[in-house]
Amino acid sequence: MIFIFLFFLCQIINVVLSTIKSVITIKGTKLAASIFSAVNYGFNTFIIKAIADVELYIAVIVTVICNLVGVYVGLLITEKLRKEQLWKITVTVSTENLANFKKDLLDNNIDFIAYETSWKDYKVVDIFSKHKSTSKTIKKIFKNYNVKYTISANCGKL
User: Fold this and answer.
1) pLDDT category, 65, cuts 50, 70, 90?
2) Cα–Cα distance, 124 to 106 (Å, whole number)
3) pLDDT band at residue 129, thresholds of 50, 70 and 90?
4) How far is CA 84 from CA 5, 87, 130, 152, in A?
5) 3 to each of 6, 7, 43, 155, how far by Cα in Å?
6) Which pLDDT score, from 0 to 100, does residue 78 have?
């Protein structure tokens, strides 16, 4: 029974490492991806060796449970470790709602730039968000105005 618990614990660690490795491979540097991949595959080799002594049905059940929990935990960890970044949200808002929309943004201390356009029915506003809490407030404001928007992130430096 202790062996199954240890296998379960190692498999959870393996899945969390694998999930983080996948995120770092896509979003991280080449060096970070290489190092994390080496650690993950090294640990994975340990798991493969350990699985040889476990009944197949137990290995399958533990692996399924660990993947359900471990992927969630791995993504939660990478989300918590992610640095804040500047988001630019370009919004199309109806001209009749523009004044109230801008007032809601100002009342919530949200930075924006409103553009003059030749389009009579709609106007364009660029909104800037540096924090997750600001983005949540912006999302609440959007629900009141039936706006269409696109989001881009500042993911590089000059």
Assistant:
1) very high
2) 16
3) very high
4) 37, 9, 7, 14
5) 5, 6, 17, 45
6) 85
The model's pTM: 0.57
Helix (H, G, I), strand (E, B) or coil at 130: coil
Residue of 121, 132, 127 whose CA lies nearest to 142: 127
CA 146 – CA 70 distance, rounded (Å): 37
Alpha carbon 81 to its chain centroid, in Å, reads 10
**Which amino acid would we find at residue 33?**
A
Question: For 76-104, what is each residue's pLDDT tens digit?
Answer: 988 887 776 788 999 999 999 999 999 99
CA separation (Å) from 5 to 41, 82, 146? 21, 31, 51
- C-alpha 36/C-alpha 24 separation (Å) is 8
